[in-house]
Amino acid sequence: QVQLVESGGGLVQPGDSLRLSCAMSGRTISTYAMAWFRQAPGKEREFVSGIRRTGGSTVYADSVKGRFTISRDNAKNMVYLQMNSLKPEDTAVYYCAARGSGVLITTPQYDYWGQGTQVTVSS
C-alpha cells in the first residue's frame, strides 16, 4: 500500500548540485522517520541522511556532512535531499526509505524503499 518514488537524479560534473525528491503514496508521510541511502557498484548500501517525523532533528553521514541537506514537507508527502559540491565518490543509486516506528536509525532496517534514482558525478 505504501509506495516511495525517488526522482531528481542525473549526470552532473564535480561541484554541481542536485536535488533529489521522494514522494510517498498510500499513507501520510508524517508518521514515518525518513532516510536516504545510497549504493555504489560493488559496495554495500550505506546511510546518507535521515530526518525524524517532525523535522528538525537530522543525521548525516560524515562523507556528506556540510554538503547535503535533508528536509521534509509533510503537507506534500515529500522528502528531499539537496546535494551540493558533488564529488565523483557520490556516484551511486540513491534510495528513499521510510520507517514506520518513527525512530531514525542509520542501518538499513527500514520498512519501505523506493526504486532508486541514479546519481552520476563525472567530468
Compose a concise summary of this entry:
This protein is mostly beta strands and 123 residues long.
Question: Can you walk through the features of this model?
Answer:
It is a single chain. The protein is an all-beta fold. Helices cover 0% and strands 48% of the residues. The chain is built from no helices and eleven strands. It has strands spanning 3-7, 10-12, 18-25, 33-39, 46-51, 58-60, 68-73, 78-83, 92-99, 112-113, 117-121. Strands 2, 4, 5, 6, 9, 10 and 11 form a seven-stranded mixed beta sheet that branches. The protein is globular, with a radius of gyration of 13 Å.
Task: Name a few traits of the molecule.
four-stranded antiparallel beta sheet; about 120 residues; mainly beta
Radius of gyration over all CA atoms, rounded: 13 Å
Classify the helix fraction into a percent range. Answer: under 10%
Characterize the biggest β-sheet.
Answer: 7 strands, mixed
**Strand coverage percent:** over 45%
Assign the structural class, choosing from mainly alpha, mainly beta, alpha/beta, alpha+beta, or little secondary structure. mainly beta
**Per the principal axes of the C-alpha atoms, what is the gross shape?**
globular
SSE succession: EEEEEEEEEEE
Query: Would you count the extended β strands for me?
Result: 11
Low-confidence stretches: none
Average pLDDT confidence is 95
Task: Compute the separation of the termini in Å.
Answer: 40 Å
